[in-house]
Amino acid sequence: MGNAAAAERRLRNPGSFERLHRRCKEVFPQQLEGVKLIINKHLSSHFQAAHIIHLSSMLPQYSFKAMYSGDQEADSGETFPQLMGEIDGSGSLNAQCVVMLSNRIRARAAFQTQQERFQTWQFDTQYHGDSFTTTVTLGNPDILNQSASQWIGTLNIGRGGAHATYYHRANDQVQVGVGFEASTQTQETTFSFGYQLDIPKANALFRAGSLDSNWVVGAALEKRLAPLPLTLALGAFIDHLKNKLQYGFTVTVC
Known about the structure:
The chain is 6% helix and 63% strand. It is mainly β. It has a 17-stranded mixed β-sheet, covered by helices on one side. About 4% of the residues have low confidence.
């Protein structure tokens, strides 16, 4: 009994480093402006594609996204290699490739182009221990990442500033996220807070309580329109300092 309880309290591996901040950011509602249509298509068990059309106050935008996952499976349940790419109507491309060198070591390469110009690139190698993940990145160093089964705390420090997030899952319905970001380039510091409420019986996901130190308040509601393969997302944000209201909705077909 004692060994079983100790094993239950033991810290688990937090996963890849880029997913740590993502867990916190997923709690916050995404800003929506205009109308966005997303059509997802599963072509096979390994290949998935998506068409994205965004109509807003700016020029209409179209992008195509493709994702491939291989047959090599890790202990976390992820499959490798992973190839992801997204290209828009102007020819700008975001792409990355993730491969598993061993059960504990993974390598990732990512790059971005702006139309025909090569803009950014990044290489990193991750080592997945029993209760930690270490990442070596050609670019911004990772100072600290750690996780328990119900919370994730992360910190990035580099020449551009510092970025810290804290994610906590209170129960199956409520998740909370807190973010802090300081930039040495803009000399600005922002703090943000948000929470997410899942309502399984209503097929709804409500992200509310988003508030940052710039007095921007926002909320979003996602509703799956079963039995139709449609998901509707409604969102609104108010910038009190600029006296600006932004709202929109997204329809996802999958």
